[in-house]
Amino acid sequence: MATNWGSLLQNEQQLEELARQAVDRALAEGVLLRTSQEPSSSEVVSYAPFTLFPSLVPSALLEQAYAVQMDFNLLVDAVSQNAAFLEQTLSSTIKQDDFTARLFDIHKQVLKEGIAQTVFLGLNRSDYMFQRSTDGSPALKQIEINTISASFGGLASRTPAVHRHVLSVLSKTKEAGKILSNNPSKGLALGIAKAWELYGSTNALVLLIAQEKERNIFDQRAIENELLARNIHVIRRTFEDISEKGSLDQDRRLFVDGQEIAVVYFRDGYMPRQYSLQNWEARLLLERSCAAKCPDIATQLAGTKKVQQELSRPGMLEMLLPGQPEAVARLRATFAGLYSLDMGEEGDQAIAKALAAPSRFVLKPQREGGGNNLYGEEMVQALKQLKDSEERASYILMEKIEPEPFENCLLRPGSPAQVVQCISELGIFGVYVRQEKTLVMNKHVGHLLRTKAIEHADGGVAAGVAVLDNPYPV
Ligand code: ADP
Ligand code: MG
C-alpha cells in the first residue's frame, strides 16, 4: 500500500514541528502511559508511543473485520461452553505446558463443583494483518483472538483527535474528516454494565484485578470512568489482595473487604509470571464464585493458540456453530494456515514444511503478551530440538503473514521522530453477554490499529515495539 503522506515524510524540519504539536496534543488528550521507571505511580507520566500519521487501511478489510466480529464472539462463547471440545483440544498441550495445565485444572474443578456463575461476559479483541496476495489485493488474516485483558480500548478512543490535529495543522481538512471516531472503552464498559445489571444487586461492585505495576493505567481508567458515569463503582485489587480479603458466602457470592462483587474484570492473570501459589488460589476462589468473570476460565482457555489451531480443522466451525453456514464462511475466510505439532505424522509433516521454508512460518507457544513467538533461524533451532520430544505439543505452527510495508513516522518518548518501513495490525473489540443460555448482547465496539517497524517480528505496544495508530480508510 502506498501512503498518502509520501512527500510530507521527506521534509525533516516540518516533521519535527509536526511531531512537537502531535505530542502535545497526545498529552492533552490523555494518550498516556506511566513510565517504566515509575510504573506504580501517576506522578510522572508520558505519552503512549504513536504514529505521526494515520496508516492507510483498505475500507473493505476494515468492514470485513467489523462484520466478522459478532461471529467471533459467538464462536468464543460456544467453545467456552463445550467442555468436551476444550478437553480434547488441550489434552496433549496440558501434558507439556504447565501454565495451560493449571488453568485447565481450575476449569475442571469448577465444572466438578458446578458452575455458580449465571451471567457470562466476553470482552475480546480479534487481531489481523493484511496479507498481500499474488494479484496485489490484500486479504484480512487473523493473527489471534485475545479473550483476557484485551487492552488499549481506552487509549484508542483518544488517538483520533491527535491524528485529526496533525492533518488540520497541514490544512488537510478533508483528510482529517476521514479519521474514524472510535470509542472502544465505552462499548467495553456497556458490556460490563449489562453484566452488572443482570447480576441483579444494586450495591454490588465491579472488581478489576490489577497488577501492582501498571503502566497502562489510563487505558483502564477510561473504562472505570465510563462505569462510574453509570453509577457503577469499580474497585481495583491485586490477586494478593483477593487471597487476603476475598471470601465466598454459602451461595458462593463473592465478597472483597465486605463488599459484594457482581463482575470480575481481569487485567492480570494471563502470563505464568503473574501467578504465585497464592495467586492461583485467589484465581480459583474467583472462578468458584457466582460473580460474572471477564473472562471465566473456560473463555480464557478458548483464547489459547492451541484452540485457534484446532478451530481451523475442517468441520470444527460447523460443529461449534451448527446451522450457521454464513458465519462459518466469514470466520474461515480470515484464517491463516495453522498446524498442529502433536506427535504423529501430521505434526512431522508440519515440522518438515517449516524446516524447508522457515521464512514462511511462525512457531508459537501457549503464551500471551508478546515476545514469545519464534521466527527464522530461532524457529529452526527450536524445531530441530523439539522434533523428537513430546514437548512440541505445547506449540503450534502458523503461516507467517506478510503485509506490504509502508512508511510512517514513529513517535516515542525519549527518541527522535523516526521515519521507518512499517506494518500494521488491526484489532476489533467485541462484547457479548449471556445469561444462562440466552445471549443478551453481541456487538463490535471499536478498533485498535497498532503499527511497528518491519524489523520487529513480534511484540505489541506494551512490549515497547508497536505504537498506537489510526486507520485511514481508502
Ligand atoms: P501474543 O499473544 O503474544 O500477542 P500473537 O499471536 O499476537 O501473540 O503474536 C505476537 C505478535 O507477533 C503479533 O502482534 C504479530 O506482530 C506477530 N505475529 C504473530 N503471528 C504472526 C503471523 N502468523 N504472521 C506474522 N506475524 C505474526
Ligand atoms: Mg497478540
UniProtKB/TrEMBL annotation:
Binds 1 Mg(2+) ion per subunit. ATP binds at residues 144, 305, 364-373, 375, 398-401, 425, 452, 458. InterPro entries: Glutathione_synthase, Glutathione_synthase_a-hlx, Glutathione_synthase_C_euk, Glutathione_synthase_N_euk, GSH-S_sub-bd_sf, GSH_synth_subst-bd, PreATP-grasp_dom_sf. Substrate binds at residues 125, 148-151, 214-216, 220, 267-270, 450, 461-462. One of its GO terms (molecular function) is glutathione binding. GO terms for cellular component: cytosol. Keywords: Acetylation, ATP-binding, Glutathione biosynthesis, Ligase, Magnesium, Metal-binding, Nucleotide-binding, Phosphoprotein. Its cofactor is Mg(2+). Pfam families: GSH_synth_ATP (PF03917), GSH_synthase (PF03199). Mg(2+) binds at residues 144, 146, 368. Belongs to the eukaryotic GSH synthase family. Homodimer. This is Glutathione synthetase. The gene is GSS.
